[in-house]
Design a protein that fits this description.
Belongs to the DegT/DnrJ/EryC1 family. Helix 2 packs parallel to helix 9. This protein starts with 12 loop residues before the first helix and ends with a helix. It is built from 14 helices and 11 strands. It folds into 2 domains: about 240 residues, Type I PLP-dependent aspartate aminotransferase-like (Major domain) (Aspartate Aminotransferase, domain 2); about 120 residues, Aspartate Aminotransferase, domain 1 (Alpha-Beta Complex), CATH 3.90.1150.10. A 7-stranded mixed β-sheet has the order 1-9-8-5-4-2-3, with helices on both faces. A two-stranded antiparallel sheet has the order 6-7. The protein is of the alpha/beta class. It binds pyridoxal-5'-phosphate (PLP). Pyridoxal-5'-phosphate binds next to helix 3 and helix 4. The site of pyridoxal-5'-phosphate has 14 residues, from helix 3 and helix 4.
């Protein structure tokens, strides 16, 4: 069976974890945490990165930093991972779900424009499959009401919008290093802060509401409870693993892109025949090969395709269940139908993709997809 995902190991993870053990400094914010943060900052070219225990935690930290009040609204896409919405719901915000675009699952600025009002405090674009959202359009809408943009950049490492790295466009952004992402450490993430005036606040949120980080830099003579926060720091063991991966980002990306390009080439004719639609990458965006997906015409075709692939030894999977129709949200809120979010819920299929995927395996997957459509 060709698995859907296989976390890639670059080879230096054990060496670095060994160094972390030998240093007898195991809790967070030690030398590997600083190394990993510096690598992310170098990759992004600006802003301050803080490692977190997950992207979910980075989103929760960002939600705390938005300082939401009862009645405040946050606009998120319906077609996303639960954490995008849950992080803000935890703070008591009213979640407003926007639809996806027709070309790809990214949030549709027209849908955002229809939801925005004077209570909108934040807009959270998700760069689905690592492909940039229409950030200029979203920024213009946010500026109109003074809302903060928080990028859910969980899938967006090493990808760009008009030449600018994803994760540098919002006030805050959140990355994931979960084992299913391009760069992994088991469970991990980063909060990236693009507004220098908020960097100290972000450290406080990550350090349980204390100014412990400033204390260790010698900037204050004792540390105190100075605001709301939680425990979002990963251990040095996790940071050591992540450092090894971040150092190899270019090699990882080259391998993933090669597999992605092979799929795109092998399946193009199916899109031409309208059997499926393939991802549209807008001119302003790049492709980081986080994911290769295709969209079937209807749910029934997708179900049969996934079954056919399984019978052919290929593990392909569907993705999100639109959140506007989720049991938790729909039980407590009136929901509007969102046509594109529902379409991707029903019709999107993801093909196996991992950095050390063999080209023969990629061809086997493509052969099986082609055989299904005949
Ligand atoms: C993976 C993912 C998350 C959650 O990441 P964790 O690190 O597992 O918390 C959030 N949002 C999106 C869009 C994701 O793909």
């Amino acid at each position: 069976m060709i698995p859907f995902n296989k976390p890639y190991l670059v080879g230096t993870e054990n060496l670095y974890i060994g160094e972390a053990l030998a240093s007898r400094k195991l809790s967070g914010d030690g030398s590997f945490t600083k190394r990993a943060q510096a690598l992310i900052e170098a990759q992004l070219g600006s802003g301050k990165s803080l490692l977190t225990t997950s992207c979910t935690d980075a989103l929760e930290a960002a939600a705390l930093l938005c300082d939401l009040k009862p009645g405040d609204e946050v606009i998120v896409p319906s077609y996303t991972f639960v954490s995008t919405a849950n992080a803000f719901a935890l703070r008591g915000a009213t979640i407003r779900f926007a639809d996806s675009g027709a070309d790809n699952p990214n949030i549709d600025p027209a849908s955002v424009a229809s939801l925005v009002n004077e209570r909108t405090r934040a807009i959270v674009p998700v760069h689905y499959a690592g492909v940039a959202c229409d950030m200029d359009a979203l920024q213009a809408i946010a500026d109109g009401v003074g809302a903060t943009i928080v990028e859910d950049a969980a899938q967006a490492i090493a990808s760009f919008y008009k030449g600018k790295p994803l994760g540098t466009l919002g006030t805050f952004s959140a990355f994931s290093f979960h084992e299913t992402k391009n760069i992994v450490c088991g469970e991990g993430g980063a909060l990236h802060v693009n507004d220098p005036a908020r960097a100290l606040d972000a450290e406080i949120v990550r350090e349980k509401g204390t100014n412990r980080s400033a204390f260790f830099r010698g900037e204050v003579d004792k540390y105190n409870w100075v605001g709301l926060g939680s425990s979002y720091l990963p251990s040095e063991l996790v940071a050591a693993f992540l450092t090894a991966q971040l150092e190899a980002v270019d090699a990882i990306q080259a391998r993933r892109i090669a597999v992605w390009d092979r799929y795109a080439e092998r399946l193009a004719h199916l899109a031409q025949r309208n059997d499926i639609s393939l991802p549209v990458i807008p001119d302003y965006a790049t492709n980081n090969a986080h994911m290769f997906y295709l969209v079937c015409d209807v749910l029934e075709t997708r179900t049969r395709l996934i079954e056919h692939l399984k019978a052919s030894g290929v593990m392909a999977v569907f993705h999100y269940q639109a959140l506007h129709a989720s049991p938790y949200f729909a039980a407590n809120n009136a929901t509007q139908p969102l046509a594109q979010a529902t379409r991707y819920t029903d019709c999107l299929v993801r093909l196996p993709l991992y950095a050390d995927m063999d080209m023969d395996d990629a061809d086997r997957v493509a052969d099986a997809v082609c055989a299904f459509f005949g």
